[in-house]
What we know:
By secondary structure, the protein is of the alpha/beta class. The chain has 15 helices and eleven strands. The strands form two sheets. It has an eight-stranded parallel barrel, surrounded by five helices. A two-stranded antiparallel sheet has the order 1-2. Helix 11 crosses helix 12 (276-283) and helix 11 runs antiparallel to helix 15. It is globular.
Amino acid sequence: MAKIRDIDLGDFPLLLAPMEDVSDPPFRVLCKEQGADMMYTEFIAVEGLIRDAFKSTQKLDFAEAERPLGIQIFGAELDSMIRATEIINEIKPDVLDINFGCPVKKVTCKMMGAGILRDIPMMIRLAETVVKASKIPVTVKTRLGWSEEDKPIVQVAEMLQDVGVEALSIHGRTRKQMYKGEADWTLIGEIKNNPRMHIPIFGNGDINTPQKAVEYKNRYGVDGIMIGRASIGNPWIFREIKHYHRTGELLPPPSIEERVTTAKRLLQMAMDWKGERLGILETRRHYSNYFRGLRDIKEYRRRLVTEDDKENLFAILDEIHEVYDDKG
């Protein structure tokens, strides 16, 4: 049973990863409905948050139905991290998560995200500072290390636990790998099986099928799994993994009606939350997965990702429903 302080996540929890321009309230609603046990916001720049920048403060939005929910921050300055921690504690999410894993150059070049993996003492100091300033549990998401030659995560995990971090989510790649190659869960398993470790350890990276989720749970002994890119356009992955874990059987894929209805809901919620233009643009990344596996779907997907008018988008989705429902 995985617990973060008094937050009971149950047996083998599935977490929705924090993903920029993906893990927003509309998408989190869908994933929660499909069985995600805990979710995280998009990451929030502490410098923007303490300056009340709209793009940062908007990411603080969440509904009670989304709980348990973690708000994720990234930064490099101790004072800014403290002030951001105080702001987030006032909002009262369930968890405050620190991003020590983002591999994007514009983040890492400022010693933020995975950039901090080049300065482990500062990484631990930042984590300890946030823990001391926070009334709610502090968790961390990070990677194996900076490069293939520099993967200190086993020792770092102990150090983070020692300063009060209450759970770790570990992506099985280095920063230099970005998202290339295959995620290596060997060190994640080593951390979980370290007798000194007593906080929950969640594995992340390349989990894209129910079979793989259960295989990796059994092989590496993790407390739960964080799902990232495999959930984009596919919120059903949470229910599919849960069903397979419980029964050993695969669920059939969602019906055309469910796929279309879900795509419409996300589009409408995204427009309601972000405005029509941005809602349309940021929903585009989901369409390929919604309709994956359907014959001759390529032209419909092209239309969905190039159309700018909401009424036309809904009409295209209706057409997909009609055409593919007839095909069975």
